[in-house]
Write a sequence for this structure.
């Protein structure tokens, strides 16, 4: 009797860290339904291909339809192959997708990702496309099965949606109003993860420090950080992305006083100009923003602060742009993720007058990037001579094989490439090194490793990789990003500049 091979799946993810986390859920749902991950590099050669889309770029739809078009002939040659489209673009475009790409089998939204296996089966049986877009959240994503990308680091979602009305951002319209998760459920998930070997978690929310708005507790987020500090075995806690409006002194105190909360902060600026911030409907001004930075540095002197900046927002003058440059000089960001403004369909900013000419935006963007490159390099040079504990990362150093190095993340999330020691070191283990060289985007520790600490996280990585063959494909991101949790690269905002 022939044994039927299990069906394979591939998930392609574009956009923000929310989508990365949702894709982990989609993978978990599919594996729970009996599918297996397609080998890395399958490039559409799977029984089910899922696109988890982003809608915040001006040409996001063109990119999606281009990718769908490339799969059409593959589907023709492969009977039974199915294609599903989910995420923010699916939530926005709905029926348009199957009209433009009638070979798509399933379209689902941001609120009903749990329905994917059912919709795939329904499409197979009925032999017609299934379009199901829920208008409100059906189940908090963290209640769904998951197939996490990392054995030693994990996202933990604490809220979904956003109550802000930034004029450049379409996310609230697609993700809905903010909905907070119960603190007990969050802590229970973290404890379970730590029990499995995870040693680093990133608390995730569209506006993470607004947590508690559902119950009217403005200190709920700082209380959550402190509670994370009580979880034995949890070595590193990070969070993204906060909003300056909701960033309160109790959060700074909790960061400074909770040992496993890392000295790292991603604080989206977007613009240093008060008139532009007002036009963006950002409920803070330059003085407020710089005041937060000053307080954080006073409480956590070695904190690495990163940001998002949009250049060329409608109506931005040269004077407005110079104010952004001023804030960059004052704040001394370790990194800034800069975006040239582009129209987000469906946002108020897309129809504003005084759209800045492309060539002006480009010139300003290049000036800002040049300034920030120098600042990042200067700030990294201050790390030379410091002794740092690194959590060894997987896949962070593209040249590690050729240079005989490994890579890891410092507590402040800086990327450090270090000399490979004689003894075995696994992702999730912790090494102690001395920084010897600084570049704008990374550090080097060229001397001998001072100490190697084998960890339960490293054990978990080793166990997982021994059980998995072939190695699962990685999530492909289409925008500047935070990244999949295993490397935990330098944090950005949501990837869409909407925080």
């Amino acid at each position: 009797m022939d044994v039927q091979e299990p069906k394979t799946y591939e998930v392609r993810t574009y956009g923000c860290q929310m989508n990365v986390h949702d894709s982990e859920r989609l993978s978990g749902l599919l594996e729970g339904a009996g599918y297996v991950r397609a080998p890395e590099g399958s490039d559409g050669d799977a029984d089910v291909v899922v696109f988890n889309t982003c809608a915040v770029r001006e040409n996001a739809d063109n990119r999606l339809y281009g990718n769908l078009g490339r799969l059409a002939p593959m589907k023709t040659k492969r009977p039974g192959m199915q294609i599903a489209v989910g995420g923010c673009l699916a939530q926005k475009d709905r029926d348009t997708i199957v009209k433009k790409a009638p070979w798509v089998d399933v379209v689902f939204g941001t609120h009903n990702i749990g329905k994917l296996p059912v919709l795939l089966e329904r499409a197979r049986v009925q032999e017609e496309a299934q379009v199901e877009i829920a208008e409100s959240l059906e189940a908090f994503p963290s209640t769904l099965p998951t197939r996490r990308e990392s054995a030693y680091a994990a996202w933990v979602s604490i809220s979904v949606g956003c109550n802000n009305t930034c004029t450049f951002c379409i996310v609230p319209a697609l993700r809905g109003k903010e909905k907070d998760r119960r603190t007990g459920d969050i802590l229970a998930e973290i404890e379970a993860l730590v029990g499995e070997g995870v040693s680093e978690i990133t608390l995730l929310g569209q506006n993470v420090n607004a947590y508690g708005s559902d119950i009217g507790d403005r200190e709920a987020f700082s209380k959550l950080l402190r509670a994370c500090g009580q979880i034995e075995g949890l070595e590193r806690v990070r969070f993204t992305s906060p909003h300056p409006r909701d960033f309160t002194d109790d959060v700074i105190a909790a960061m400074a006083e909770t040992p496993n909360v890392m000295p790292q902060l991603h604080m989206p600026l977007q613009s240093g100009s008060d008139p532009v911030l007002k036009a963006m409907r950002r409920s803070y001004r330059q003085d407020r923003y710089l005041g937060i930075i000053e307080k954080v540095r006073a409480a956590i002197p070695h904190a690495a602060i990163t940001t998002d900046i949009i250049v060329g927002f409608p109506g931005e003058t040269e004077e407005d742009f110079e104010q952004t440059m001023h804030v960059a000089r004052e704040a001394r960001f370790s990194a800034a993720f800069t975006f040239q403004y582009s129209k987000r369909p469906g946002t108020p900013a897309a129809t504003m007058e005084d759209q800045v000419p492309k060539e002006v935006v480009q010139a300003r963007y290049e000036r800002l990037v040049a300034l920030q490159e120098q600042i990042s390099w200067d700030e990294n040079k201050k790390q030379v001579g410091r002794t740092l504990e690194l959590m060894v990362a997987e896949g962070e150093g593209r040249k590690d094989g050729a240079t005989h190095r490994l890579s890891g993340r410092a507590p402040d999330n800086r990327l450090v490439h270090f000399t490979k020691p004689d003894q075995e070191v696994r992702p999730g283990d912790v090494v102690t090194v001395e920084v010897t060289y600084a570049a704008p985007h990374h550090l080097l520790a060229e001397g001998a490793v001072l100490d190697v600490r084998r960890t339960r996280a490293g054990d978990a990585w080793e166990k997982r990789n021994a059980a998995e063959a072939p190695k699962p494909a990685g999530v492909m991101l289409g925008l500047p990003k935070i990244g999949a949790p295993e490397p935990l690269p330098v944090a950005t905002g949501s990837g869409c500049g909407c925080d």
Summary: Residues 470-497 have pLDDT under 50 and may be disordered. The chain has 15 helices and 21 strands. The longest strand covers residues 304-311.
